[in-house]
Amino acid sequence: MIGKASGQGNAMEFDTGARLKEERERRRMSQRQLAAVTGVTSGMISLIEQNRTSPSIATLKKILVGLDITLSAFFSTPEEGGPKWYFRKHELREITPSAKRGEAEAGVTFRQIGRPGASAIQMLYETYAAGADTGPELYSHDAEEAGIVLSGRINVTVGTETQLLEAGDGYLFNSRTPHRFHNPGPDDCVMVSACTPPTF
Question: Residue ranges under compositional bias (Basic and acidic residues) (predicted)?
Fold first, then answer.
């Protein structure tokens, strides 16, 4: 789940609702028009824009496809300084700020190396807390993606097949096929993944 978040560690505060409204209004679309092209109800879009609900990654991806913007670009902030080729761990860009389900953290974190759109490949450092997932719905995007599990384990669903991957295991698939990630626990799962072109 993704929502309005306060900064944690080096993550910057990010207002998902305000950003979504800004992007929608920039394109001169009403909530109903956006709903019509995404399949997400206008009521849900309204609740997200008011930060009254936190969308799953799959739901937010549907909305952003309708706005023609990637998830990483949606969460991007202006680049400071000139281009660079190395990044310290505190410089990795948070593209899924923490959201809350009641008092519990949603538990999915994506940290990107570099600036969105600056490269033909997108590299992510992903963390899934026990029980966390990308949402009940499968999602897709125009790319190929691959990853390696560094620690913990993760259920990866691609199409109709689900595999439990553990530390040292990897995956590679066409991202146009609907997919989902879920950590069955009991420990956190940490992965490094790549996506090309960077459409996530």
Answer: 16-28
